[in-house]
Amino acid sequence: MTSEKLLLVGAGLSGAVIGRTLAEAGYRVTVIDTRSHVGGNCHTERDPASGVMVHVYGPHIFHTDDAGVWDYVNHFARFLPYKNQVKTTTGGAVYSLPINLHTINQFFGRTLRPDEAAAFIEELADTGIETPESFEQQALRFVGRDLYEAFLKGYTMKQWGCAPSELPASILKRLPVRFTYDDNYFFHRFQGMPEDGYTAMIARILDHPGLRVLLDTPFEPGMAQDFSHVFYAGPLDGWFGYDAGRLGYRTLDFERFCARGDWQGCAVMNYGDVSVPWTRITEHKYFAPWERHEATVCYREYSRAAEPGDIPYYPVRLVAEKALLGEYAARAAAAERVTFVGRLGTYRYLDMDVTIREAMETAAAFLASRTAGKAMPAFVHAPL
Ligand SMILES: Cc1cc2nc3c(=O)[nH]c(=O)nc-3n(C[C@H](O)[C@H](O)[C@H](O)COP(=O)(O)OP(=O)(O)OC[C@H]3O[C@@H](n4cnc5c(N)ncnc54)[C@H](O)[C@@H]3O)c2cc1C
């Protein structure tokens, strides 16, 4: 048993998994969060009127190929099967996403088999673009103009707030098309939803006698002196009081509405037309397909640049942000007795499974550093 006291800033998945592992190793762990609930952005709560489990900061679907992480989450929650089947409304019709054989046949009024569809798409592709430099060029080279404009252009413009010609080609790494009728959005072996929601799961991770949780408690720099080490899952630039400027994020505005019965008949409906200002509507009862509710709760989702005070959702990570990130990361690397973790601490988009894996690695690195009598680094996972 060690008498060392550790502070975890953030009661999301990063803070919970690191905190739990180190509490089990005998450390005295305090987890604080500025919010009034645990769970970070994965937070779920039941709508009191309808009983629908609502994903308060946007829908979260658990999917992974990492068997260790899948075992871990199944230890703290019962996962029920969930398949993410996304639809999109574009040009006055509804299609299946990601672009698959059904989408292609419906969109072009064909009855193509897989090899025929692959040859057809190859004909549409703009092979004149040899080295795509932008998202737009990459999309045109992969699928040609018609599919690009119907399924990728408008959604991307709304999501990122700029023309796809201004975004790097790297955003679209692979051919965004399947030549089968498989409409499961994710390829991963394991996919599901925690029966009681993510907040209940994360509360169970945090439930350990060596760990205390303080909610409604924003981190203040003076707090660090009471602890031998801080794990900080807050925004990297926030640690420095944003003194060199703010790292760019996209934020989301959710327009929540309720209705009787069903609203759209599926969990996620994207909107591909630029004339529709929202990117998608999510109907939350469909994220728990084993439940039955007479009423329904939906979120209309709008994306825009985050301002001070907004919730930072998606790191922008374009050229200007990377320059500022380099500056903050260099300063952070020189800091002592603090490790920056998670999606905000390292300014990266991280799915939940990656967050958990990295949190496990961070806790293991801390234990190894203590055993070796070495200083714990500021980053176990570098932001750049
Ligand atoms: C819209 C959206 C949808 C997503 N959908 C999926 C999905 O379908 N599947 C998937 O695998 N992943 C999804 N993710 C990713 C998932 O949300 C992250 O993997 C996960 O939330 C990362 O956990 P974290 O603990 O690093 O960060 P967070 O969950 O953001 O937790 C950080 C916590 O730190 C707290 N905090 C910050 N600053 C301070 C401070 N100064 N003092 C005290 N507390 C502070 C915050 O309040 C927050 O609770 C999605 C993300 C977004 C934005």
TrEMBL record:
Gene3D superfamilies per UniProt: NAD(P)-binding Rossmann-like Domain (3.40.50.720)
PANTHER family: UDP-GALACTOPYRANOSE MUTASE
Pfam families, per the entry: GLF (PF03275), NAD_binding_8 (PF13450)
Domain UDP-galactopyranose mutase C-terminal: 150-349
Organism for this UniProt entry: Frigidibacter mobilis
A GO CC annotation given for this chain: cytosol
Regions annotated as coiled coil: none
GO MF term list: flavin adenine dinucleotide binding; UDP-galactopyranose mutase activity
InterPro entries given in the database record: UDP-GalPyranose_mutase_C (IPR015899)
Designated name of the protein: UDP-galactopyranose mutase
Signal sequence segment: none
